[in-house]
Amino acid sequence: MAQVGIVMGSDSDMPVMAKAADLLEELGISYEMKIISAHREPDVFFEYAKSAEEKGFKVIIAGAGKAAHLPGMCAAIFPMPVIGVPMKTSDLGGVDSLYSIVQMPSGIPVATVAIGGGQNAGILAAKILATSDADLLQRLKDYTRKLKESVQEKDERLQEVGYRNYGKG
Question: What is the pTM of this model?
Fold first, then answer.
């Protein structure tokens, strides 16, 4: 049974949303990924959002661009946390998506990550789930430790070779 639903409005959102899926896989969290257009197939969308709790989802990560109604509509129907991922758009660079997702009416919150922030959406979903899962919390701590070590290794390399030679060889 999937713990996280990942839904996007278009297959063009896949590169961003795949980052959320990759992170969830790395942490051992089950998910289901779907492409559903809230505008072009509202009946399919409503069924998805209404059945998400029954399916065992604890969090939904919803990515959308332009009008970006998908995350907010998920939050209006699904009673648990929804994380919105605004997509970069050709018209306004994703600011339109960001505003559409983050400016929800009172009572219908959507946790929102940066434009194109699929990986952070996965991390936030994992943190939400980790509040009641000690093993997952430890995996998150290990992941964070690896991030810290990666930065430290990069700094050691910089100190070793200097900034002019950093990206060479």
Answer: 0.94
Distances (CA, A) of 54 to 5, 58, 141, 152: 12, 10, 30, 44
- Using the 8-state DSSP alphabet, how is residue 105 labeled? P
Q: How far apart, in Å, do the first and last CA atoms of the chain sit?
A: 46
Give the DSSP H/E element, type plus range, for residue 101.
helix 95-102
Q: Which amino acid would we find at residue 1?
A: M
Q: How far is CA 78 from CA 117, 121, 128, 138, 157, in A?
A: 22, 17, 15, 28, 47
The model's confidence at residue 61, banded by pLDDT at 50, 70 and 90, is very high
